[in-house]
Amino acid sequence: MTQRSSGDVQLKNKDVRWAAFDPIAYVDHNYRDLQAEDAEILHMIRDHFGGHFRKQGSGPVSGIDVGAGANLYPALAMMPWCDEITLFERSPANVRYLTRQVDCYDRNWDQFWDVLCESEAYDSLGVAPRERFRKVVSVEQGNLFDLARYRRQWSMGTMFFVAESMTTSHQEFSLAVERFLRALAPGAPFAAAFMEHSKGYHTGEHFFPACDVGESEVRASLEAFAGDFEVRRLESAAEVRDGYSGMIVAYGWRNSDSLIPVG
After folding, report:
1. 78/189 Cα distance (integer angstroms)
2. What string of pLDDT tens digits covers the 263 residues of the chain?
3. What's the predicted TM-score (pTM) here?
């Protein structure tokens, strides 16, 4: 299939055939083996969440992974502190993949868990990770733009490679970040990741759009909703997929936006 840039065709989220997303092809290309960039991201979010709960208490809390897709490691990163984790996902194919993974996730995810287990909070979980995952994780199909009805519901959250990877619209990108953060309670720790200057991507035979964002756009999308946060750029030495210049990871805490009108 001919490579296209997301700049060739302007696509909003509603225009995309999400039913055509191929989770098996996506996992095979991105997560069958642990990439150095993902290992670095795991270290960041592991330390962020671990540091938060060492200071604030051990939970249990409720967590959400927005746009979970075919990626389990954000949920694994929240698992020690959650008695429930919602994998919120639009694509019917990804929902089916996630539902199968809840009962007994595939062995390729063990290498991601092993990185997390370099921290005691994960290593001392007390039960087998698959057993814990099966107990606390549930899958909910939905559009992230509808998260407005769940305002301040979850106590920690993740959103990985979603806001910039489902539209070419900068307005929709910013709204997606807003919907994610508004769904979190004040003070909730969060982590989010973004493909920097992505031109779009293939999953199997299908092309999916992306919004061209860098550090400045990521910071701007977070500022109204995160009181304290860090934004870090990872420059890929060996690109996981074509058509981007690096990865951006943001982590911090949800602020109180009681004076900010709902967008």
Report:
1. 10
2. 333 444 455 778 776 777 888 999 999 989 999 999 999 999 999 999 999 999 887 679 999 999 999 999 999 999 999 999 999 999 999 999 999 999 999 999 999 999 999 999 999 998 999 999 999 999 999 999 999 899 899 999 999 999 998 888 999 999 999 999 999 999 999 999 999 988 877 777 777 788 999 999 999 999 999 989 999 998 764 555 567 788 999 999 999 864 444 44
3. 0.91
Closest CA to 164 of 38, 1, 11: 11
Spell out the residues 6+ positions from residue 199 whose beta carbon is closer than 8 angstroms to its own: 5, 6, 7, 210, 212, 243, 244
Alpha carbon distance 247, 57 (integer Å):
31
CA separation (Å) from 37 to 9, 125, 144, 248? Answer: 29, 25, 26, 10
Residue 3 burial (CB < 10 Å; 0-12/13-18/19+)? exposed
Domain annotation for the chain: domains and CATH numbers? 13-254 (3.40.50.150)
DSSP 133-172: HHHHEEEEE--GGGGGGGTT-BSEEEEES-TTSS-S-HHH
